[in-house]
Amino acid sequence: MIRLGIDLRHVSTDGFVGAGVAHASNELADTLRAYAHEYGTETFEVRGKMRSWELSRRMRDQRIDAFLAVSGAVPPLLPVPAFPWVHDVAIFTHPEWFPQSPSRRFVTTSLFLRGVRRAPHVFAVSEDTKRTLVEMAGIESEKITVTYQGVRVSTPWNEPGDYAIMIGTVEPRKNIPFIVELWKDVQMAIGRDVRLVIVGKTGWGNVDIPSRDWLDRVPIATDEDRDRLLAGARVLLLPSLHEGFGRSALEAMTLGVPVIASNRGALSEVVGDAGILLDPEDREGWIGTISAAFLGRADGARGRVRATLFSWERTARTILAKVQESC
What we know:
Blueprint: E1 2-8, H1 20-35, E2 41-47, H2 52-61, E3 66-69, E4 82-86, H3 90-93, H4 102-118, E5 122-124, H5 127-137, E6 144-146, E7 163-167, H6 176-190, E8 195-199, E9 215-218, H7 223-231, E10 235-238, H8 247-254, E11 259-262, H9 267-271, E12 276-278, H10 283-294, H11 301-307, H12 312-326
Parallel strand pairs: 1-2, 1-3, 3-4, 4-5, 5-6, 7-8, 7-10, 8-9, 10-11, 11-12
Protein backbone atom coordinates (compact mmCIF):
# COMPACT_ATOMS: atom_id res chain seq x y z
CA MET A 1 0.00 0.00 0.00
CA ILE A 2 1.42 3.38 -1.07
CA ARG A 3 0.81 6.19 1.41
CA LEU A 4 0.51 9.38 -0.62
CA GLY A 5 0.76 12.74 1.11
CA ILE A 6 -1.22 15.58 -0.49
CA ASP A 7 -0.06 19.11 0.22
CA LEU A 8 -3.09 21.34 0.88
CA ARG A 9 -1.36 23.91 3.07
CA HIS A 10 -2.15 26.63 0.50
CA VAL A 11 -5.91 26.06 0.88
CA SER A 12 -7.55 28.41 3.35
CA THR A 13 -9.13 26.93 6.47
CA ASP A 14 -11.45 29.91 7.12
CA GLY A 15 -14.38 28.55 5.12
CA PHE A 16 -13.61 30.34 1.86
CA VAL A 17 -11.58 28.07 -0.40
CA GLY A 18 -9.98 30.90 -2.38
CA ALA A 19 -8.85 31.31 -5.97
CA GLY A 20 -8.72 28.78 -8.80
CA VAL A 21 -5.69 26.75 -7.70
CA ALA A 22 -7.14 26.27 -4.22
CA HIS A 23 -10.51 25.17 -5.63
CA ALA A 24 -8.81 22.75 -8.01
CA SER A 25 -6.61 21.38 -5.24
CA ASN A 26 -9.56 20.61 -2.98
CA GLU A 27 -11.55 18.97 -5.74
CA LEU A 28 -8.58 16.88 -6.88
CA ALA A 29 -7.87 15.74 -3.32
CA ASP A 30 -11.49 14.61 -2.89
CA THR A 31 -11.33 12.61 -6.12
CA LEU A 32 -7.93 11.08 -5.34
CA ARG A 33 -9.35 9.89 -2.02
CA ALA A 34 -12.28 8.26 -3.81
CA TYR A 35 -10.18 6.23 -6.27
CA ALA A 36 -6.89 5.71 -4.42
CA HIS A 37 -7.74 2.20 -3.19
CA GLU A 38 -8.02 0.96 -6.77
CA TYR A 39 -4.33 1.81 -7.20
CA GLY A 40 -3.13 0.34 -3.92
CA THR A 41 -2.83 3.82 -2.47
CA GLU A 42 -3.98 5.60 0.66
CA THR A 43 -4.07 9.42 0.71
CA PHE A 44 -3.03 11.60 3.62
CA GLU A 45 -3.91 15.31 3.41
CA VAL A 46 -1.76 18.02 4.96
CA ARG A 47 -3.60 21.26 5.77
CA GLY A 48 -2.87 24.41 7.74
CA LYS A 49 0.28 26.46 8.16
CA MET A 50 3.38 24.38 8.62
CA ARG A 51 7.09 24.95 8.13
CA SER A 52 9.15 22.67 5.91
CA TRP A 53 10.86 20.93 8.80
CA GLU A 54 7.50 20.32 10.46
CA LEU A 55 6.14 18.88 7.23
CA SER A 56 9.15 16.59 6.88
CA ARG A 57 8.70 15.32 10.41
CA ARG A 58 5.02 14.63 9.76
CA MET A 59 5.92 12.70 6.62
CA ARG A 60 8.21 10.47 8.66
CA ASP A 61 5.75 10.09 11.54
CA GLN A 62 2.95 9.11 9.15
CA ARG A 63 5.23 6.79 7.15
CA ILE A 64 4.43 8.59 3.89
CA ASP A 65 5.93 7.01 0.75
CA ALA A 66 5.38 9.80 -1.78
CA PHE A 67 4.16 13.39 -1.82
CA LEU A 68 1.91 15.25 -4.26
CA ALA A 69 2.62 18.99 -4.35
CA VAL A 70 -0.73 20.11 -5.77
CA SER A 71 0.21 23.81 -5.76
CA GLY A 72 3.16 23.00 -8.04
CA ALA A 73 5.78 24.03 -5.47
CA VAL A 74 7.77 21.19 -3.92
CA PRO A 75 8.71 21.97 -0.29
CA PRO A 76 12.39 21.61 0.58
CA LEU A 77 13.70 18.98 2.99
CA LEU A 78 11.13 16.34 2.08
CA PRO A 79 12.29 12.81 2.97
CA VAL A 80 10.19 11.20 0.19
CA PRO A 81 9.84 11.56 -3.61
CA ALA A 82 7.65 14.54 -4.56
CA PHE A 83 5.39 14.89 -7.60
CA PRO A 84 4.50 18.52 -8.48
CA TRP A 85 1.19 19.36 -10.18
CA VAL A 86 2.08 22.53 -12.07
CA HIS A 87 -0.60 25.09 -12.94
CA ASP A 88 1.21 28.07 -14.41
CA VAL A 89 4.80 29.02 -15.14
CA ALA A 90 4.19 32.47 -16.59
CA ILE A 91 6.46 33.91 -13.89
CA PHE A 92 9.38 32.86 -16.07
CA THR A 93 8.13 34.56 -19.22
CA HIS A 94 6.32 37.53 -17.65
CA PRO A 95 7.74 38.25 -14.18
CA GLU A 96 6.09 41.69 -14.23
CA TRP A 97 2.73 39.98 -13.68
CA PHE A 98 3.75 38.72 -10.23
CA PRO A 99 3.99 40.66 -6.94
CA GLN A 100 7.51 39.76 -5.86
CA SER A 101 10.75 41.63 -5.52
CA PRO A 102 13.57 40.41 -7.80
CA SER A 103 15.35 38.78 -4.86
CA ARG A 104 12.22 37.01 -3.65
CA ARG A 105 11.40 35.91 -7.19
CA PHE A 106 14.90 34.44 -7.55
CA VAL A 107 14.42 32.36 -4.41
CA THR A 108 10.95 31.08 -5.29
CA THR A 109 11.78 30.28 -8.92
CA SER A 110 15.03 28.56 -7.92
CA LEU A 111 13.19 26.38 -5.41
CA PHE A 112 10.49 25.64 -7.97
CA LEU A 113 13.03 24.58 -10.62
CA ARG A 114 14.86 22.43 -8.10
CA GLY A 115 11.60 20.68 -7.23
CA VAL A 116 10.48 19.89 -10.79
CA ARG A 117 13.96 18.82 -11.90
CA ARG A 118 14.34 16.37 -9.03
CA ALA A 119 10.81 14.99 -9.26
CA PRO A 120 10.40 11.40 -10.49
CA HIS A 121 7.52 12.73 -12.62
CA VAL A 122 5.78 16.06 -13.16
CA PHE A 123 2.08 16.73 -13.82
CA ALA A 124 0.92 19.80 -15.76
CA VAL A 125 -2.61 21.16 -16.15
CA SER A 126 -2.21 21.99 -19.85
CA GLU A 127 -0.01 21.47 -22.89
CA ASP A 128 0.87 25.17 -22.70
CA THR A 129 2.24 24.73 -19.18
CA LYS A 130 4.09 21.59 -20.24
CA ARG A 131 5.75 23.37 -23.18
CA THR A 132 6.97 26.18 -20.96
CA LEU A 133 8.31 23.69 -18.41
CA VAL A 134 10.30 21.92 -21.12
CA GLU A 135 11.69 25.22 -22.39
CA MET A 136 12.41 26.93 -19.07
CA ALA A 137 13.37 24.01 -16.84
CA GLY A 138 15.02 21.80 -19.42
CA ILE A 139 12.89 18.80 -18.43
CA GLU A 140 12.41 15.98 -20.90
CA SER A 141 8.93 15.99 -22.43
CA GLU A 142 8.43 12.32 -21.46
CA LYS A 143 8.81 13.23 -17.79
CA ILE A 144 5.71 15.47 -17.86
CA THR A 145 2.12 14.26 -18.09
CA VAL A 146 -0.71 16.65 -18.93
CA THR A 147 -3.69 15.94 -16.66
CA TYR A 148 -5.95 18.95 -17.34
CA GLN A 149 -8.49 19.69 -14.60
CA GLY A 150 -12.02 18.66 -13.93
CA VAL A 151 -14.78 20.91 -12.72
CA ARG A 152 -17.39 20.64 -10.02
CA VAL A 153 -20.16 23.21 -10.04
CA SER A 154 -23.72 23.15 -8.81
CA THR A 155 -26.36 23.66 -11.49
CA PRO A 156 -28.84 26.08 -9.95
CA TRP A 157 -31.80 27.29 -11.93
CA ASN A 158 -31.52 31.01 -12.42
CA GLU A 159 -33.51 33.45 -14.49
CA PRO A 160 -31.16 34.61 -17.27
CA GLY A 161 -29.98 38.15 -16.54
CA ASP A 162 -28.93 40.94 -18.86
CA TYR A 163 -25.32 40.88 -17.75
CA ALA A 164 -21.90 39.52 -18.63
CA ILE A 165 -19.66 38.07 -15.94
CA MET A 166 -15.92 37.97 -15.27
CA ILE A 167 -14.55 35.63 -12.59
CA GLY A 168 -11.10 35.62 -11.05
CA THR A 169 -8.70 37.43 -8.76
CA VAL A 170 -8.32 41.03 -9.87
CA GLU A 171 -4.68 41.41 -10.92
CA PRO A 172 -2.84 42.84 -13.94
CA ARG A 173 -2.74 39.80 -16.19
CA LYS A 174 -6.52 39.28 -15.95
CA ASN A 175 -6.88 42.35 -18.22
CA ILE A 176 -10.11 43.45 -16.52
CA PRO A 177 -9.80 47.23 -17.12
CA PHE A 178 -9.71 46.47 -20.86
CA ILE A 179 -13.33 45.24 -20.69
CA VAL A 180 -14.48 47.97 -18.29
CA GLU A 181 -13.14 50.68 -20.61
CA LEU A 182 -15.01 49.41 -23.67
CA TRP A 183 -18.33 48.68 -21.95
CA LYS A 184 -20.06 51.94 -22.93
CA ASP A 185 -19.32 51.08 -26.57
CA VAL A 186 -20.95 47.67 -26.06
CA GLN A 187 -24.06 49.37 -24.69
CA MET A 188 -24.14 51.78 -27.60
CA ALA A 189 -23.77 48.90 -30.10
CA ILE A 190 -26.75 46.98 -28.72
CA GLY A 191 -28.87 50.01 -27.92
CA ARG A 192 -29.58 49.34 -24.25
CA ASP A 193 -27.97 49.31 -20.83
CA VAL A 194 -26.46 45.97 -19.86
CA ARG A 195 -24.47 45.14 -16.77
CA LEU A 196 -20.99 43.83 -16.13
CA VAL A 197 -20.46 41.67 -13.03
CA ILE A 198 -16.91 41.14 -11.74
CA VAL A 199 -16.53 38.34 -9.18
CA GLY A 200 -13.25 37.82 -7.37
CA LYS A 201 -11.11 39.18 -4.61
CA THR A 202 -8.76 42.10 -5.15
CA GLY A 203 -5.24 40.81 -5.69
CA TRP A 204 -2.05 42.73 -6.18
CA GLY A 205 -1.07 45.46 -8.66
CA ASN A 206 -3.55 48.22 -7.75
CA VAL A 207 -5.80 47.36 -10.69
CA ASP A 208 -8.24 50.22 -11.05
CA ILE A 209 -11.90 49.23 -11.37
CA PRO A 210 -13.86 52.48 -11.34
CA SER A 211 -17.33 52.72 -9.83
CA ARG A 212 -19.97 52.74 -12.55
CA ASP A 213 -23.75 52.45 -12.37
CA TRP A 214 -23.66 49.48 -14.75
CA LEU A 215 -20.88 47.59 -12.92
CA ASP A 216 -21.38 45.17 -10.02
CA ARG A 217 -18.28 44.28 -8.02
CA VAL A 218 -18.53 41.07 -5.93
CA PRO A 219 -15.19 40.66 -4.11
CA ILE A 220 -16.23 37.71 -1.94
CA ALA A 221 -18.71 35.03 -2.93
CA THR A 222 -19.46 31.53 -1.75
CA ASP A 223 -19.21 28.73 -4.30
CA GLU A 224 -23.00 28.63 -4.46
CA ASP A 225 -23.30 32.37 -5.07
CA ARG A 226 -20.61 32.30 -7.73
CA ASP A 227 -22.28 29.40 -9.52
CA ARG A 228 -25.65 31.16 -9.33
CA LEU A 229 -24.25 34.36 -10.83
CA LEU A 230 -22.44 32.41 -13.53
CA ALA A 231 -25.49 30.32 -14.43
CA GLY A 232 -27.58 33.46 -14.94
CA ALA A 233 -25.05 35.34 -17.08
CA ARG A 234 -25.56 36.06 -20.76
CA VAL A 235 -21.86 35.39 -21.41
CA LEU A 236 -18.56 34.78 -19.58
CA LEU A 237 -15.68 37.10 -20.51
CA LEU A 238 -12.10 35.95 -19.97
CA PRO A 239 -9.70 38.43 -21.66
CA SER A 240 -6.60 37.29 -19.74
CA LEU A 241 -3.14 37.99 -21.07
CA HIS A 242 -2.29 34.44 -19.98
CA GLU A 243 -3.93 31.47 -18.25
CA GLY A 244 -2.25 28.22 -17.29
CA PHE A 245 -5.60 26.49 -17.61
CA GLY A 246 -8.80 28.58 -17.55
CA ARG A 247 -11.04 27.16 -14.85
CA SER A 248 -13.82 29.75 -15.14
CA ALA A 249 -14.20 28.99 -18.86
CA LEU A 250 -14.73 25.30 -18.06
CA GLU A 251 -17.21 26.18 -15.31
CA ALA A 252 -19.19 28.34 -17.73
CA MET A 253 -19.22 25.66 -20.42
CA THR A 254 -20.44 23.10 -17.89
CA LEU A 255 -23.42 25.36 -17.16
CA GLY A 256 -24.09 26.09 -20.83
CA VAL A 257 -23.01 29.74 -20.58
CA PRO A 258 -21.36 31.07 -23.78
CA VAL A 259 -17.66 31.93 -23.47
CA ILE A 260 -15.63 34.70 -25.05
CA ALA A 261 -12.00 34.26 -24.10
CA SER A 262 -8.49 35.33 -24.90
CA ASN A 263 -6.47 33.26 -27.36
CA ARG A 264 -3.43 33.34 -25.06
CA GLY A 265 -1.97 30.60 -22.88
CA ALA A 266 -4.00 27.44 -22.39
CA LEU A 267 -7.43 28.94 -23.05
CA SER A 268 -7.61 27.58 -26.58
CA GLU A 269 -7.03 24.06 -25.17
CA VAL A 270 -9.96 24.43 -22.79
CA VAL A 271 -12.43 26.36 -24.94
CA GLY A 272 -11.57 24.88 -28.33
CA ASP A 273 -14.30 25.58 -30.89
CA ALA A 274 -17.00 25.69 -28.20
CA GLY A 275 -16.52 29.42 -27.61
CA ILE A 276 -15.00 32.45 -29.27
CA LEU A 277 -11.29 33.20 -28.90
CA LEU A 278 -9.96 36.71 -29.46
CA ASP A 279 -6.72 38.63 -29.17
CA PRO A 280 -6.90 40.22 -25.68
CA GLU A 281 -5.88 43.56 -27.15
CA ASP A 282 -8.37 43.61 -30.05
CA ARG A 283 -10.76 46.26 -28.76
CA GLU A 284 -13.11 46.31 -31.76
CA GLY A 285 -13.22 42.54 -31.89
CA TRP A 286 -14.33 42.31 -28.25
CA ILE A 287 -16.94 45.05 -28.64
CA GLY A 288 -18.47 43.33 -31.66
CA THR A 289 -18.42 39.84 -30.18
CA ILE A 290 -19.83 40.86 -26.79
CA SER A 291 -22.55 42.87 -28.53
CA ALA A 292 -23.48 39.84 -30.65
CA ALA A 293 -23.79 37.73 -27.48
CA PHE A 294 -26.25 40.19 -25.95
CA LEU A 295 -28.23 40.23 -29.19
CA GLY A 296 -28.74 36.48 -28.93
CA ARG A 297 -26.04 35.32 -31.32
CA ALA A 298 -24.14 33.15 -28.84
CA ASP A 299 -24.93 29.57 -27.91
CA GLY A 300 -23.59 27.64 -24.93
CA ALA A 301 -24.72 24.22 -26.17
CA ARG A 302 -21.35 23.33 -27.68
CA GLY A 303 -19.71 24.27 -24.40
CA ARG A 304 -21.77 21.70 -22.51
CA VAL A 305 -20.58 19.00 -24.90
CA ARG A 306 -16.94 20.05 -24.74
CA ALA A 307 -16.99 20.26 -20.94
CA THR A 308 -17.61 16.51 -20.78
CA LEU A 309 -14.04 15.99 -22.07
CA PHE A 310 -12.71 17.22 -18.73
CA SER A 311 -13.28 15.21 -15.55
CA TRP A 312 -11.71 14.95 -12.12
CA GLU A 313 -11.94 11.17 -12.30
CA ARG A 314 -9.75 11.12 -15.39
CA THR A 315 -7.29 13.54 -13.80
CA ALA A 316 -7.10 11.59 -10.54
CA ARG A 317 -6.68 8.24 -12.25
CA THR A 318 -3.87 9.62 -14.43
CA ILE A 319 -2.00 10.85 -11.35
CA LEU A 320 -2.58 7.73 -9.26
CA ALA A 321 -1.42 5.43 -12.06
CA LYS A 322 1.79 7.38 -12.63
CA VAL A 323 2.58 7.59 -8.90
CA GLN A 324 2.04 3.85 -8.59
CA GLU A 325 4.30 3.24 -11.59
CA SER A 326 7.03 5.51 -10.19
CA CYS A 327 6.95 4.10 -6.66
